[in-house]
Amino acid sequence: MKKQSRGVLPVILCFALFLGAGLLLHLALPDHSRSENENRMLAFAPKFTLKTLFSGGFTEDFEDYITDQFPFRDSWLDLKSRTERLMGKTENNGVFFCREDTLISRFRPPKASAVEGGVRAVNALAANTGIPVCLALIPSAAEIWSDRLPANADTADQAALIRSIYDAVDVKTADILSALREHASESVYYRTDHHWTTLGAYYGYAATAAALGLTPGNPEDYRPETVSDSFYGTVYSSSGVRWVKPDSIQTFVPAGDAELTRYDTSEGTVSPIYDVGKLETKDKYSMFLGGNTSRLVIRTGHAGGKLLVIRDSYADCELPFFFEHYSEIHVLDLRYYRQSVSAYASEGGFDAILVSYSLADFVTDTSVFLMGT
Questions:
Q1: 67 is a domain residue
Q2: Of the listed ranges 27-36, 188-197, 272-281, 310-319, the one predicted with least confidence
Q3: Distance CA 335, CA 311 (A)
Q4: Closest by CA position to 314, among listed 160, 213, 202
Q5: What is the mean pLDDT of the chain?
Q6: What is the DSSP secondary structure assignment for residue 276, as one 8-state letter?
Q7: Following DSSP, what letter does each residue of 89-152 receive, concatenated?
Q8: Residue in 232, 149, 138 with CA at minimum distance from that of residue 188
Q9: What percent of the chain has pLDDT over 90?
C-alpha cells in the first residue's frame, strides 16, 4: 500500500501544479469576448448574488465562464481533437472527419411534415402568382462527396429525398444533383464550410438556367479570381478540428455595372456586389452580396426581364451568373422577410420565380412555408 501511495503522489502533485498554473494564467490573462475559430461569443464572469447561488444558476454560469476562458483554450481543443483522431474517432458534433482534408456535416433524415410543408408552399406560390416557378434544391457535400466519408458514416439519402420532392411539386425543377455528381472530382464544395464553392455554384447555375429555358454561359468565358486563401467556414467552427488547411474563395463574374441595393432597413442601402471588407472577418463567405438580409434588388446593367429569387445563402455566390440573363433580380430571404411573398411577386412584374435552397434548409427552415403566403 505504501508503494502504491508513493506512486500516486507524483501524479496528484503534477495535477495540482497544472490546475494552479491554469488558475494563475487565468487571473493574469484578459478575458476574450469572442472565439473566431468557433464563430461565437464567449461567456463572461457571472455576477454573484445569493439568489443565483441557491438557484444553481451561478454555478452553471461560472462553469461556462471557466470553460470558455481557460488559458490557451484553442490549443487545448486542437490537442483534444488530434488525440481523438489518433484514437480512431471519426466525427464530432455532427461533423465527419473525412478524406482529403475535408470536414462534412451529417445530413439527418427530416420530418415528413417539414417536407410536405415545403412542397405545399412551393405549389401555393405558383398557384397564387401565376408566374412560372422553378425549384432548385442543392444537395450537401455528404451526398456528392460520399466517397470521402469515413466507413459506415450515418447520413441520410439526399438523392431519394430530392426525387420525392420533385415528384410532388407542380413546378419546373433543376437537376443540380446530377450536375454536381458529374463534377464530384472537382472542388465543388468548401472543405471547411457547408456551402458550395463558386465553381460548384457555376454547375448549379448551368442546371438551373437550363430549367428556366436560358442558355448558360460557357465555363471558359469566366476568369476565376482568388480573393482569399485563408477561409475557415462554419463546419470548421463546429467540428473542434484545427488540423485542416484553409479554403480559398473565388469570384468568377466581375461586378461590372451591376448595382445592389440591400434592404436591411426600409430605405435601402447601395452596396457592392462583392463586399471585400467581409474578407477581413471570420464570415468571409458573406462577401458575396454582403451576406444575409431580408431583401435585395440587383440592377444588372444587362438587357432582359425580371427574376424573383427566394433563397438561402447558397444562392449568394450563384446569382452573379444570372446577371447576363436579366435586367433586374429581386432576392427574398424568408428568414427575415415577413410580408406576403405572393403579393410581392404579383406586383413586381416578374417573368420567373426561382426558389433556390440547400436541401438541408428546405426541409428544416420553418420559414419556408411563408413563400405560400
A1: no
A2: 27-36
A3: 10
A4: 202
A5: 87
A6: G
A7: --EETTEEEETTTEEEEPPPPPPHHHHHHHHHHHHHHHHHH-S-EEEEEE--HHHHTGGGSPTT
A8: 138
A9: 70
**Residues 180-197: what's their mean pLDDT?**
98
Q: For residue 247, give its domain range.
A: 112-372
The grid cell for 19 is: 490546475
- Between the alpha carbon of residue 253 and those of residues 106, 107, 207, 216, 298, the distances in Å are 31, 31, 17, 13, 14
How many domains is the chain partitioned into structurally?
1
Determine, yes or no, domain membership for 5: no
Which of 138, 221, 135 is closest to 178 using CA atoms?
Answer: 138
pLDDT level of residue 325 (50, 70, 90 thresholds)? very high
CB within 8 Å of 329: residues ≥ 6 apart: 296, 297, 298, 300, 306, 307, 308, 309, 319, 322, 323
Measure the CA–CA gap between 144 and 116, rounded to whole angstroms.
24
In the numeric block, which cell numbers belong to residue 219? 465555363
Measure the CA dihedral 304/310/312/318, to 10°. Answer: -10
Residue linked to cell 435601402: 268
Instruction: Report yes or no on 357 lying in a domain.
Output: yes
Instruction: For the chain, give the longest Cα–Cα distance.
Output: 90
Q: Are strands 352-358 and 133-138 parallel, antiparallel or unpaired?
A: parallel
The answer, yes or no, to whether residue 182 has pLDDT greater than 80, is yes
How far apart are the C-alpha atoms of 194 and 308, rounded to whole Å? 24
Residue 261 has pLDDT above 70, yes or no: yes
Which pLDDT belongs to residue 308?
98
Residue 267 binned pLDDT confidence (cut-offs 50, 70, 90): confident
Domain membership flag for residue 15: no
Sequence-distant (≥ 6) Cβ neighbours of residue 31 within 8 angstroms: 42, 44, 45, 69
Written as nine digits, the cell of 112 is 415528413
The residue-averaged pLDDT of 282-310 equals 96
